[in-house]
Design goal:
Blueprint (H helix, E strand, L loop, with lengths): L2 E6 L7 H16 L3 E6 L5 H12 L5 H25 L4 E4 L1 H4 L1 E3 L8 E4 L2 H8 L3 E5 L2 E4 L5 E3 L5 H11 L4 E6 L20 E3 H9 L7 H10 L3 E5 L7 E4 L18 E5 L2 E10 L4 H11 L7 E3 L8 E9 L3 H10 L1 H4 L3 E5 L2 E7 L9 H11 L6 E5 L2 E7 L3 H11 L17
Parallel strand pairs: 1-2, 1-9, 2-6, 3-6, 4-7, 9-11, 10-12
Antiparallel strand pairs: 4-5, 7-8, 11-12, 13-18, 14-16, 14-17, 15-16, 18-20, 19-20
Helix pairs in contact: 1-3, 2-3, 6-8, 7-8, 9-10, 12-13
The structure holds aspartic acid (ASP) and magnesium ion.
Aspartic acid binds next to loops.
Length: 425
């Protein structure tokens, strides 16, 4: 007997019929002899609707009440789903995050999990029932207030319970078939990867691939929870996310593919601080100022001064939404930092090539830059990790870049790919 945690995203439980369909699927897993714990997101766009509703009542909703409001979304879906399962003859109990024992710190809207005490859940499955848990919510043990884990947080709830209950694996159901070599809406020849490592998935998720909540992958990696990302609209195998891709995931091939996928990100912008003195402490000061504006940066590039004034340029990428805050913080500090010019560019796109096989294969960067050069696409900034190469380029060339790089690394599938218009939720 296996213990399986199954998480269903909002698009899988968008209406009554979908809830009944998902209930049948859960009961199938149960009838195959498994113990099943279910995590569910709010129905369809409920969370967005609740946020809009709050904002139409007040422009500045209080964080504490906002969390009480948003947890209502998952309470609706968990209750309905448990009813639908019971209706199929299997005992099912719904639990709020608090009842299920998900404990968090005190930060409303972005709470971190500090513990999971799944006693009632363990008892439910021991007694032969199915436990249905509201995703994305918990309780702060100091105040007894309910909290939410941040948008998309139900993935993290699922992994947290899978870890705490020592589940055999955790299935994340959404409306896409798995993790593709690139976004199929941009590269129609993209194909689903049978397996990825945690490390690769973290790199992809951190650089724009919308498959899983980043924190959920980090959590899964820490506790070695195997994840299976798949569609609730088909029975196809999805993508397994594991520590090591062993043979059973390799489709009979004896080596894992060198490249796992291409992530793309249009949400970033670039700021350049030009003519800044090249002396100790400059970068420290500059980034302390950016950090104090609460801005999270990603890539940084500094050039070596070759001019008489011995001044350098420092460029960095940041979320587009954070440009105004970073820009004005830096502007205010111009006298102190002694730079000559400040520029921002919101028209950038970032392409990231990810694959654990890069460690052992030379020539990956040359092939990447060659493919872009051949397509006449200029590279603005480059950054690398052990298993990733990212390039900043012009946003309007990003889609084209994804396509040519996909082809250059032989990732194109021969067959026709079925593209669901899914959002991955
Ligand atoms: N319902 C929440 C959201 O839409 C949590 C989730 O779906 O994971 O962000
Ligand atoms: Mg949702």
């Amino acid at each position: 007997m296996s213990l399986v945690v199954q998480k269903f995203g909002g698009s899988s439980v968008a209406d009554a019929e979908s809830i009944r369909r998902v209930a049948r699927r859960i009961v199938d897993t149960y009838n195959q002899g498994n113990q099943v714990v279910v995590i569910v997101s709010a129905m369809g766009d409920t969370t967005d609707d609740l946020i809009d509703l709050a904002r139409s009542v007040t422009p500045r909703p209080r964080a504490r009440e906002m969390d009480i409001l948003l947890t209502a979304g998952e309470r609706i879906s968990m209750a309905l789903l448990a009813m639908a399962i019971s209706d199929l003859g299997v005992p099912a109990n719904a639990f709020t995050g608090q009842q299920a024992g998900l404990l968090t710190n005190e930060i409303y809207g972005k709470a971190s999990i500090v513990g999971v005490v799944p006693e009632r859940i363990a008892r439910t499955i021991r007694e032969g029932g199915i436990a249905v848990i509201a995703g994305f919510q918990g309780v702060n043990t100091d105040s007894d207030d309910v909290t939410t884990l941040g948008r998309g947080g139900s993935d993290t709830t699922a992994v947290a319970f899978a870890a705490a209950l020592r589940a055999d694996y955790c299935e994340i159901f959404s409306d896409v078939d798995g993790v593709f070599t690139a976004d199929p809406r941009i590269a129609p020849t993209a194909h689903k990867q049978p397996a990825l490592t945690y490390e690769e998935t973290l790199e992809l998720a951190a650089h724009g691939t919308k498959v899983l909540h980043l924190r959920a992958v980090e959590y899964a990696r820490r506790y070695r929870v195997p994840l299976h990302v798949r569609s609730s609209f088909s029975d196809k195998e999805g993508t397994w996310i594991v520590e090591e891709k062993d043979e059973k995931y390799l489709d009979g091939k004896n080596e894992a593919p060198m490249i796992s996928g291409i992530a793309h990100d249009k949400s970033q912008a670039k700021i350049t601080v030009a003519g800044i003195p090249d002396e100790p402490g400059t970068a420290a000061r500059l980034f302390a100022i950016v950090a104090s504006a609460d801005v999270n940066i990603d890539m940084i590039v500094q050039n070596t001064p070759t001019n008489a004034a011995n001044s350098a340029n420092i460029s960095f990428t940041l979320p587009k939404d954070d440009v105004p805050a970073a820009f004005s913080a830096l502007e205010e500090a111009q006298d102190e930092l002694k730079f000559t010019k400040l520029k921002s560019n919101e028209g950038v796109g970032i392409l990231s090539l990810v694959g654990a096989g890069m460690r052992s294969h030379p020539g990956v960067s040359a092939r990447l830059f060659g493919a872009l050069a051949e397509a006449g696409i200029n590279i603005d900034m480059i950054s690398t990790s052990e298993i990733r190469i990212s390039v900043v380029l012009s946003e309007n060339q990003l889609d084209e870049a994804v396509k040519v790089v996909h082809t250059a690394f032989n990732l194109d599938s021969e067959g026709e790919v079925i593209v669901y218009g899914g959002t991955g939720r």
